[in-house]
Design brief:
alpha/beta; 8-stranded mixed beta sheet; binds uridine-5'-diphosphate; binds magnesium ion; glycosyltransferase activity; cell membrane
Length: 314
């Protein structure tokens, strides 16, 4: 099945304030290029509304290497998910790699990924983190809890530690592009499309320069989006809470009636009454919040706004 034609590998690189890392990234990639079986590289950098000189760096790289380097620059920050989508849409290569600009994704692994696709017949070769060393304990805890929860309630398996860094065939990329949803959760989308996937193990490493743009709360809200995008179980939860409190209320009613018939009805217990009313009120708001989150997502989808706006493309 060996194809003699020269293959093109497109690299999709979302960039948000990566002025320091970009030249290092490009250099590192050019170094692994000879090990990529003569493949032609096509870089697609996506400047996601950076506030530093990322765009200037990209223009410079593009002028230096117009054959290989392309970039898209957004009109503002639309988020990594939007940047990935824009990059994937622009690619023309037979294979497409998704990589972070900060060299946390080791470029050397591309060689092994390519072998996985061309020699072993996989459609996707991804990377999976084997340790969480160097990560704050609280972050690991929430991360583990998130994966445990989402896999309990979603029919799309979302494996812990899987990174976005991956090499895919054109067929897989086309499948991903056929999901034009506004609320994009790549971990779910990559898994949802299926295909034969292999994971290489990945050791945590620090970014070469700059700093991460993910705060704890940003990650937290991203996880909530993932749950809402890939499961409707929380909606069912609202019904369960309703049924459960109905049953409790029914038992309580029987208890109160029986007690009244046997002991009469001394007036007391307003404190318990108040707390029960408050609790039910709280549960109702909680369930309303869940429903609201889904409606909010429907609202965002229904507006059909573009996922990103391009200001400059080369
Ligand atoms: N990124 C982006 N838009 C954003 C945030 C991040 O395009 O709003 C890019 C960023 O430039 C990097 C990748 O997404 O190439 C991963 O971001 P980061 O390194 O900050 O995340 P971490 O590796 O800490 O998860
Ligand atoms: Mg990073």
């Amino acid at each position: 099945m060996e194809d003699k034609m020269v293959k093109t590998i497109s690299l999709v690189v979302p960039c948000f304030n990566e002025e320091e890392t970009l030249p290092l990234f490009y250099k590192a990639l050019q170094q692994v290029k000879p090990a990529l079986r003569g493949a032609v590289l096509e870089y697609w950098f996506v400047n996601d509304g950076s506030r530093d000189n990322t765009l200037a760096e990209l223009r410079q790289l593009q002028q230096k290497d117009p054959q290989q380097v392309h970039y898209i620059s957004f009109s503002r920050n639309f988020g990594k998910e939007a940047a990935l989508y824009a990059g994937l849409q622009a690619t023309t290569g037979d294979y497409v790699a998704v990589m972070d600009a900060d060299l946390q994704d080791p470029p050397e692994q591309l060689t092994e990924m390519l072998a996985g696709i061309e020699d072993e017949g996989y459609d996707v070769v991804g990377t999976r983190r084997v340790n969480r060393e160097g990560e704050p304990a609280i972050r690991s805890f929430f991360s583990n809890a998130f994966y445990w929860f989402i896999n309990k309630i979603s029919s799309t398996p979302i494996q812990s530690g899987v990174r976005d860094f991956r090499l895919m065939t054109r067929q897989v990329v086309d499948a991903i592009l056929a999901m034009p949803e506004y609320n994009r959760f790549s971990k779910g989308i990559f898994s949802w499309v299926g295909f034969k996937t292999k994971y290489l193990s990945y050791q945590n490493r620090d970014r070469v320069a700059g700093s991460t743009s993910w705060s704890f709360w940003k990650l937290f809200s991203y996880s909530l989006d993932g749950i809402v995008d890939f499961s409707d179980a929380p909606l069912v939860l609202a019904s369960f809470i309703g049924i459960a409190s109905f049953i409790v209320a029914l038992l309580a009613m029987i208890f109160i009636i029986v007690r009244k018939m046997i002991f009469g009805d001394p007036v007391m217990g307003w404190a318990s009454l108040a707390s029960i009313v408050l609790m039910i009120g709280g549960l109702q708001l909680f369930c309303l919040g869940i429903v609201g989150k889904y409606i909010g997502n429907i609202y965002l989808e229904a507006k059909h706004r573009p996922i990103y706006i391009i200001k400059e493309k080369k």
